[in-house]
Amino acid sequence: MQAAAVAPQVVRAALTRPLTRSISSKLAAHVAPWPQRQRTARGGVVAQARNRLADLLADLKSEDVDDESTAPIVTKLEWQAPLGVLPYPDPRLRAPNSRIGCFDDDLRRLAEEMFEVMYKDEGVGLAAPQVGVNVRLMVFNEAGEKGQGDEIVLVNPQIINSGKMTNLFEEGCLSFPNIYADVERPSKVKVKAQDLNGKKFTISLSGFPARIFQHEYDHLDGTLFHDRMAAPVLDTVRQQLVAMEDAYLAANPGAQVRRVA
Ligand SMILES: [Zn+2]
């Protein structure tokens, strides 16, 4: 996911739309000081972001959770360096993603390389299929800056439950440069996952981390953010999506891609 990257008036518009069923005050407080796309404007929120994430991580506890997923398991990770973000509508963004069964140096290196790509492209989250590795792995750092905030790696994540309250928030995606639009999602999620050593844990997320997580989690299921846009919102970006599809097909004649409806 790209830094939630919006002018203040857009944030306010997004948060006060009639479509919004409810907004947690925590999220509203969080997004209010997130004013611009420019890196230089982010400094003021970084310390707050770090404190909030530290609170969230304090919730983190070990739990023996059953793995309900039926996705196949890979025992050796392979990829070609250097990694780069695949643009929509690359078919690998829609391909099934395997669970990871190898908690080794390759996994650690892949996560590290994903962080490098994410920071370079000024994102706050990245899912492995976005760099062409079809496995259930995501990385994120809500601060969006190397050396700041907390780097979170979730291996084989699953959503245990989602809050009933939802909110609208303008999202971007590294696979869709310069496309931003509102997506409605639950404000809170409880997640189980494994860390880089294979240790299982659960974590409750709310606010911006919940937003980033759900966006990246969708990538692991081959779901892209425009799949979740309300019809009138999708209309505002359809032309840009079609332009990306046309450009991809011109560069990759005969590719089987799923086009926007
Ligand atoms: Zn994305």
Automatic annotation (TrEMBL):
InterPro entries cross-referenced by the UniProt entry: Peptide_deformylase, Peptide_deformylase_sf
This enzyme's EC code(s): 3.5.1.88
Protein's cellular compartments: Plastid, Chloroplast
Record Pfam families: Pep_deformylase (PF01327)
GO biological process, one term: translation
Coiled coil: none
Keyword terms: Chloroplast, Hydrolase, Iron, Metal-binding, Plastid, Protein biosynthesis, Transit peptide
One term under GO cellular component: chloroplast
Catalytic reactions on record: N-terminal N-formyl-L-methionyl-[peptide] + H2O = N-terminal L-methionyl-[peptide] + formate
GO molecular function per UniProt: metal ion binding; peptide deformylase activity
Function: Removes the formyl group from the N-terminal Met of newly synthesized proteins.
Family membership: Belongs to the polypeptide deformylase family.
Protein's name according to its UniProt entry: Peptide deformylase
Native organism: Chlorella vulgaris
